[in-house]
Every structure is written in C-alpha cells, then in structure tokens.
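Dear support,

I submitted the protein below through the web form. The confirmation email said the job was done, but the results page showed an empty box. After a refresh the structure appeared. I'm attaching both so you can tell me whether what I see now is the final result or a partial one.
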Amino acid sequence: MTETESTTDAFDRDSVRSASRIAIAALALVGVLYLFTLLPGVDRLVPLTPITFAAVASAVVTVAVVALLAYAAPKVASLTRAALHRTDAADHVERIAENGGAMAYWLVVLAAVLVAHSGLAGAVVPLLDGFAWAYDAAFLLASLVPLVFVVARLTVTVDPLSELVADRVSGSESAGGADDADPDAGAGEPGSESEPSAATAGESDECADGATEIDAAGSQGHSIEERWGVDDEPGDAADGGADDESTGS
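What the results page shows now:
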C-alpha cells in the first residue's frame, strides 16, 4: 500500500468516526430530552414567564443538536464526495461527486434550521405574544438559503448525470454488439476456412517424405553401380571373355 492510499484510508476512517460520533451524540441528547419530559412537574411554568421547564430543556437540547449538525455538515460533505469520487473517472463523474458533496452539506444545514425551528418554538413563541408569525417568517427566510443552494447544485448536476447514464447504457450496448458481430469468433475452430485442415496438412507431409525417399534410393543405386563397375549387361561380359580365350590360343 502506498503512502497516498494509506493517508486516504486514514482520512476516510477519521471522517467516518467523527460523523458517527456526532450522530450518536445527537441521538443521545434527544433520548435524554425525552426522558426529561417524563419527569413530574416539567410541564409547569417557569416563575414569572409563560415558558415551561420542558420548553426550556427542549430549547437547550435543540441548540446543542443544531451545533452538532453545523459541525457535522463539512464532514458529511467530505464523506459524500469521497464515496462518489473515482481516481480514473471522467470529468462529468468528478462534477457529480463535487456537486453531491455540496448538496449533502446544504441538506445538513437545512436539517439544522428545521430542527431549530421545531425545538425553539416552545420557548420563543410564548414570548412573542401576537407576533408568532415573525418567528415562522424568520425561519422561513433562514431555510430558503440552504434550499436555494441545494436547488442550484441539483440543476448543474443534471447534465453530467445524464452523460453518466448515457455512457453506461451506450457502453453496455456497444459491448454486446461487438460480441455478437465478431468476425473472428470462429477463427480458432478446426474446420474453418481460415486454417488448413489436418488431412490436407498430412497429405502434404506424406508427399514430401515420398519424394525424399525416391531421391535417396536413386542416388544410392547409382553409387553401388559405380562402386562395382557393373555398367554393362551380363551378355557383354561373356563375349569379352570368349575373345580373350581365342586370342590366347
């Protein structure tokens, strides 16, 4: 494993551990708040205020959860970007990963705004008397900010995402067509026209061997005749012997 890969793995592990720790802490706070609301007398009003003890506790826990969400937003964005990132990916895939991380960030921020609106209502709205609408209006404006960024990132992700889908679909179809229309698919099969048959190759080898044996036999016979001097016929040899005897007599 290279140094770059080990650093990336350590960074991913630290990010996952931090994000999971924040999520567990937020769930623990919510659980503690629920147990606190079950205690007797928590629904009583705080002296000299129109706010109950449960509303005060809910507001405190809400502030803590909102702070945890705001702290976790960059880590969630980093994890989303790392999950979608590919080292050898095309440019449109990198844009999808970048936009996905940004959308994850703003979605967490939007969740924090909604949690704050719901948790602080019991402690803030009673203090506003007839201006409860101002509370909702303020959080409406606050929630529009992350929503606008989510919509903007989603808009610029449509084009690269469509390119990715087109690459996957067209790539699978072209691969299937290449397998079906491969002209060299049967080139290695015996009996195909591109390769000579085994019988033809055997006949050629036999003809070559026969020609070699004939040449060798002919040359061998010729050398035997020259060695023993048998160039004439047997009758010629007998006539030659008779002539020698008459001459001697």
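Response: this is the final, complete result; the empty box was a page-load delay. The mean pLDDT is 73.
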